[in-house]
Amino acid sequence: MNRTGIILLVEDNPDDVELTLRAFERSQVVNQIVVVTDGQAALDYLHRTGAYTDRDAGSTPAVILLDLKLPKLDGLDVLRRLRADERTRRIPVVMLTSSREDSDLLRSYDLGANSFVRKPVDFASFIEAARHLGLYWLILNERPPDGAA
User: Fold this and answer.
1) How many helices (H) and strands (E) does the chain have?
2) Is residue 119 part of a domain?
3) Of 6, 52, 53, 126, whose CB has the highest number of CB atoms within 10 Å?
């Protein structure tokens, strides 16, 4: 499954990163997955600052998988900043979290999340969720043209 596009995974838990990468692999999602482990690194990647100043300007993610609980800047702060910036406001953001709080779901949508997915506990369910995420956001979803702000 690949319609060109990078997946930006913003996740600080190494076990969840490994689980997500394995789930995408088993779901035959072959897109490049870039992993950053905190909210500030996500913004640096997207804005080509900090450690990512040399990142190719044409490698904007097709979708961002954003955890809620992150060091430096939490997922909601990252989402707020993404939606306030002309360069990133149209990138689809999927909140991918283990949170069971309805308030987190509501705040995510209020800030402009495109989707809210609770991480399934068992691996088989997570593989299925990864397959659906890849199918929808990378194959079916129509993205705005490059450079559209």
Assistant:
1) 5, 5
2) yes
3) 126
Task: Please choose, from the candidates 36, 39, 64, 60, the residue with its C-alpha nearest in 3D space to the C-alpha of residue 48.
Answer: 60
| Residue with the two structure tokens 């939606």 | 83
How many domains in the chain? Answer: 1
Query: What is the reported pLDDT for 146?
Result: 60
Domain span including residue 128 = 6-140
pLDDT of residue 1: 46
If DSSP codes are grouped into helix, strand and coil, which group holds residue 149? coil
Q: Which of 3, 10, 1, 2 is nearest to 46 (CA)?
A: 10
Would residue 149 count as lying in a domain?
no
Residue 148 lies in a domain: no
Token pair for 14: 């190494």
17-26 tens-digit pLDDT: 998 888 888 8
